[in-house]
Amino acid sequence: MKAFAAATAVSVLLLAGCSATGGAEGAPEGVPSAAAPAAEVEGVLAAHGLAGKSTMEIIDQLDRLGLDARPAGLKASVRPHELLLSSGAREYRLAVPPDRFYLSVAPYADRTHDCFHHSLTTCKGELAAVTVQVRVVDETHDRVLLDEARTTFDNGFVGLWLPRDIEGVLRVSYAGKTGETRFATTADAPTCLTTLQVV
């Protein structure tokens, strides 16, 4: 998997926690953002133990953190094409590889929350640190992408790196219960899936 530099374009925007809507935030699409000095971006990453990591590695590391290890003063929101990192009054846009899409899934049995853009530092699901069976079918290309046991992170989510621009079906089984839902990895699709109930 090709590594992508973490330091990219930056702009000052608002960043919500576990975003419940798909509404656009910040500058309109197609409007270039002001670039921050690479040293500033690297400084923020270094302050949180993320220096030298690709965007994919940053997402993976932050999503896997224990709840008590989540960095104070840093917010991180996954969008279809970028990761938005907020530190203080500044927000940094780190590009996600153009052929990849990060979908974070929080299966639930009894309780859930609304979410559209996954927050790596604030979102919390019900089923934390449990073993689930995950099956992902890419219906666009008629293939099974994944069918294996996964352990949910401490935040109750399972992170899935999927091909971009596909539609499919996601099935999760836990403790003899199963849930299934459709998903997409298009430019306007959610990166946070909290509607899959195992029954």
What does this structure look like?
The chain has helices at 38-47, 55-64, and strands spanning 10-11, 74-78, 82-87, 90-95, 100-105, 131-138, 143-151, 158-163, 167-174, 177-184, 192-193. The protein has 199 residues and is mainly β. Strand 9 (167-174) and strand 10 form a beta hairpin. It starts with 9 loop residues before the first strand and ends in a 6-residue tail after the last strand.
Query: Looking at the structure, what is the overall shape?
Result: globular
Q: What gyration radius follows from the Cα positions, in whole Å?
A: 16 Å
**How many runs of DSSP E, i.e. beta strands?**
11
Low-confidence stretches: 1-17, 23-34
On the 0-100 scale, what is the average pLDDT?
85
Oligomeric form of this entry?
A: single chain
Order of helix and strand elements from N to C terminus:
EHHEEEEEEEEEE
Intertermini distance: 36 Å
- With helices defined by DSSP (H or I, 4 residues minimum), what is the helix count? 2
Physical arrangement of strands within the biggest beta sheet = 1-4-3-2
* Major β-sheet annotation: 4 strands, antiparallel
Helix content: 10-25%
Portion in strands: 25-35%
**What structural class do helix, strand and pairing data support?**
mainly beta
Give the key terms.
4-stranded antiparallel beta sheet, 2 helices, single chain, globular, mainly beta, about 200 residues, about 10% helix
